[in-house]
Amino acid sequence: MTELTVVVLAAGGGTRMKSKTPKVLHEVAGRSMVGHVLAAVRALGPTRVVTVVGHQRELVEPHVSGLLPDGLLAVQAEQLGTAHAVRMAVEAVGEVTGTVLVAYGDTPLLRAESLRALLDDHAAAGNAVTILSGVVSDPFGYGRIVRGGDGGVEAIVEEKDATDEQRSITEINSGILAFDATFLADALGRIGNDNAKGEFYLTDAIALARAGGRHVGARPVEDPFEIEGANDRAQLAALGKELNRRIVTGWMRDGVTVVDPATTWIDADAELAADVTLLPGVQLLGATKVDEDAVVGPDSTLKDCEVGAGAHVVRTHAELAVIGAGAEVGPFSYLRPGTVLGAGGKIGGFVETKNARIGDGAKVPHLSYVGDAEIGEGTNIGAGTIFANYDGVAKHRTRVGKHAKTGSNNTFVAPVTIGDGASTGGGTVVRGDVPPGALAVSAGPLRLIEGWAQRRRAGTKQAAAAEAASGAVGARTPGEHEASHNDSPEVGESAAGASES
Ligand code: UD1
Ligand code: CA
């Protein structure tokens, strides 16, 4: 096995991004640009990966180390050119043998397969240098591949140093180059900076190889997007859109129904099973996983979430949440980190959850906030319930047992425990524990002041309506009203005021 050293150049400034974030850390499809490149080179199983950092290295270094903990870093304090950058990498390694592959940190669509094909060509031909080239309609700005009469590569000429005739060449240098390591180490010591930019050009190695009688090859990449770098935000968006198109197409080929690919965004690290359906306006971000037969959308954003088989997630915003098999979420639900919804459970409209374990078949159907909570299987939480988890200083947990039925418009003042099979009445404020099977009621009896509207709102439509209705209903004593119109059903043993659905 010959050694393979991969050098990733990530020292440049990226001024056209006009950003406080270094260029290679800008993201497409949920990963930094350099993250995409490192993923592609790692798939080659190289002996080592050396990332050259310089500009804003206090930000780039920790990012790269996080992605590739056993990778090496080389510092290029001043950006004196691509040959100088590669020299810093080779010096950081000490001695290199075998093959050195040079790539740039800003080509997010680069695929391992294309690099492997380049390395295979390189090894088979015994070249000193093999170039991943590209044939493009607008070669402006790129180094041009100058081929000799036999088709072999004679040199790469940079835009600023090219003759008019050379500028018309449409085969360009992607910057991705495979080198015989021994040749490279020698060439790096001989490359000068006598050119239009006053930089040490790595591309000068080609002419040196030819002068030394070595062969140089170039292999045009099949898909020019793979070698394209993003230098500004417009190019970043264009590459992001193209990468997304590829990711979405890939999932459709794997059996995912995507109703509107143009409004569907799937990050590189998301995973989908066959027979998932994505409706228009869905973003599956980060390491989101969606299991078979689940339906997501329309208009939902899920970041680092798990969606179980057959679940339905409609108009939902969720992050670091787990949605069980066959569960229902939305519309207009907000699932914050630590939400775990059991199989067949429900989080309904205008419900916000955080750090909440909601058991199998348990339901929070309407208009509620569920924070720092445990809800047992089969329990139903009434409409408009607030889990009051914050006392102004610290957060506390609420535990609701299995098969409990809590009333509408409740407040659970944490820490509090509601037992298995317990009930609460409508409007209950639960400030203490409720034992299993108990009915908790905290609202007082309904108080009626008869004829109030007619007296206090005399002359209004309200008073007239009241007057007309009380005539129709006929005379009743206040006592009768209290018994028959009582809207606090919790005083009886029957209804708990829950809103089930
Ligand atoms: C380079 C190539 C050119 C090729 C083009 C493809 C050279 C001399 N030219 O030109 O043939 O067509 O890329 O995009 O190699 N970098 C460093 N340290 C430096 C200089 C650059 O790390 O001192 C990094 C940059 O961050 C960037 C990459 O190397 O990622 C390319 O550098 P850049 O200056 O953009 O080279 P180009 O002029 O585009
Ligand atoms: Ca460039």
Automatic annotation (TrEMBL):
Residues 459-501 are annotated as: Disordered. It is an enzyme of class 2 (transferase). Coiled coil: none annotated. Acetyl-CoA binds at A383, N389, Y390, S408, G426. It catalyses: N-acetyl-alpha-D-glucosamine 1-phosphate + UTP + H(+) = UDP-N-acetyl-alpha-D-glucosamine + diphosphate; alpha-D-glucosamine 1-phosphate + acetyl-CoA = N-acetyl-alpha-D-glucosamine 1-phosphate + CoA + H(+). Pfam families: NTP_transf_3 (PF12804). Residues 6-132 form the MobA-like NTP transferase domain. It is found in: Cytoplasm. Residues 255-501 are annotated as: N-acetyltransferase. Signal peptide: none annotated. Residues 1-233 are annotated as: Pyrophosphorylase. Its main location: cytoplasm. Binds 1 Mg(2+) ion per subunit. Keywords: Acyltransferase, Cell shape, Cell wall biogenesis/degradation, Cytoplasm, Magnesium, Metal-binding, Multifunctional enzyme, Nucleotidyltransferase, Peptidoglycan synthesis, Repeat, Transferase. The active site is at H366. Residues 460-476 have a biased composition (Low complexity). Mg(2+) binds at D106, N231. In the N-terminal section; belongs to the N-acetylglucosamine-1-phosphate uridyltransferase family. In the C-terminal section; belongs to the transferase hexapeptide repeat family. This is Bifunctional protein GlmU. It comes from Nocardioides panacihumi. The gene is glmU.
